[in-house]
Design a protein that fits this description.
This protein is mostly helical and 306 residues long. It has a two-stranded antiparallel ribbon with strand order 1-2. 40% of the residues are buried. It starts with 6 loop residues before the first helix and ends with a helix.
Length: 306
C-alpha cells in the first residue's frame, strides 16, 4: 500500500476536519460522524486485506465486541465509559490474535466464510447468554457525550490509523507485506514469517474496529446484539474500501464519502432497497472498477498526458 502524502497537506485537512462540528449540526453532523467512522473502519480494513488479498468480513464482529463490552461494563458493572473504551479494544486485540492463529492459515473462500460467520456466531452467543442467564436482551449506554464529542474522538482514531499505516509502509513489516502481497511463496522462501505478519496485522484491524465500536456505543443509547453485530456493516466497509481503492493509504476515503451519501439517500428514500444496493455495488466494483477510484485515476492519467 502506497503512503505518499504531503505532511503539511494532511495537517491542513485534519485541522479543517476538526472544525466541522462548529459549522454543521443536526443531520449534517450526523453524516460527518458516519463518514469519519467508516473512514477509520475502511482504512484499517485495507491495511490488512489490501496487501494480503484476504477479504475479511469480520469488521462487524470486532465493532460489536467494542460496543457491547462498553454497554455491558456500564450497565451491569457500573464502570465508566472511559474505562470500558480502553479495555474493549484490548479484549478485541486478544480475540483477533486467537482467531488469527486459528484461521489465517486458511486461504481464499474458506477465510471469507469463516469471518462472515464470526459476527453471527458472537451475536447468537451474546443473545443466548442474555436470554438464558441475564433475563434481558439489550443494554443502555447513557453518557453526557454529544455527537460532536464522538466526532472528535473518531477523528483522532482515524488520524492514528493513518499515522499507523504511514509508519507501517516505511517499516520492515511493510516491506514484508509488499513481498507477501505479490507472492506468498516467494515471501516464505526469503525468510518472512508470513503467518506471524498476517496475524499481527489482523490484530491491529480488530483493535481499531473495536475502538471505533466502543466510541460509537453512546450514539445508540440502547444496544442490542442485532444492532452492533450487524453483518451489513462488514459489507459496507469492504465496499467502501474497494470503491476507493486499497493500493493507497488514502484510497478508502475516496470510497467512503460518496458511498455514505448515496447510502443515506437510498436508506431514507427507499429503505427496502438497501440490500439490493449492496449487491449492485459489489457487481459494479468487480466488473467496472476492480482497482477502485484510485486505480481508475492511475489508468486515465497517461491518456491525459498523451
Amino acid at each position: 500500500m502506497k503512503t505518499s502524502a504531503k505532511p503539511a497537506g494532511v495537517l491542513v485537512l485534519l485541522i479543517a476536519a476538526s472544525c466541522v462540528p462548529f459549522i454543521a449540526d443536526g443531520y449534517w453532523l450526523s453524516i460527518a460522524v458516519t463518514i469519519v467512522m467508516y473512514t477509520a473502519l475502511s482504512t484499517s480494513w485495507a491495511l490488512f486485506s489490501g496487501p494480503t488479498h484476504l477479504i475479511a468480513l469480520s469488521t462487524g464482529a470486532f465493532y460489536g465486541v467494542g460496543g457491547y463490552l462498553v454497554a455491558t461494563g456500564m450497565s451491569d458493572f457500573g464502570a465508566s465509559f472511559w474505562t470500558m473504551a480502553a479495555l474493549a479494544p484490548l479484549a478485541a486485540l486478544l480475540l483477533a490474535g486467537a482467531i488469527g492463529v486459528a484461521t489465517l492459515r486458511l486461504s481464499g473462500v474458506y477465510f471469507v466464510i469463516f469471518t462472515l460467520g464470526l459476527a453471527e456466531m458472537i451475536r447468537n452467543l451474546v443473545s443466548w447468554v442474555q436470554n438464558n442467564f441475564l433475563g434481558s436482551r439489550g443494554l443502555y449506554v447513557l453518557t453526557e457525550l454529544e455527537e460532536r464529542h464522538i466526532y472528535w474522538m473518531l477523528l483522532a482514531v482515524t488520524a492514528a490509523i493513518f499515522l499507523f499505516g504511514w509508519r507501517l509502509g516505511r517499516s520492515r513489516m511493510g516491506f514484508a507485506l509488499r513481498i507477501l502481497g505479490n507472492d506468498e511463496e516467494v515471501a516464505r522462501h526469503v525468510g518472512i514469517d508470513t503467518a506471524r505478519t498476517k496475524i499481527l496485522l489482523f490484530m491491529s484491524t480488530g483493535f481499531f474496529a473495536a475502538l471505533v465500536g466502543a466510541i460509537v456505543a453512546p450514539r445508540y443509547y440502547y444496544i442490542e446484539p442485532n444492532v452492533v453485530f450487524s453483518p451489513e456493516l462488514s459489507f459496507l466497509v469492504v465496499i467502501m474500501a474497494l470503491l476507493g481503492g486499497t493500493r493507497h493509504l488514502w484510497g478508502p476515503l475516496l470510497g467512503v464519502v460518496p458511498f455514505t451519501l448515496l447510502w443515506e439517500t437510498v436508506s431514507a428514500t427507499f429503505p427496502n432497497a438497501t440490500t439490493m444496493m449492496l449487491g449492485v455495488a459489489f457487481l459494479a466494483i468487480v466488473y467496472l472498477i476492480p482497482d477502485g477510484i484510485t486505480g481508475l485515476a492511475a489508468k486515465l492519467k497517461p491518456r491525459r498526458l498523451s
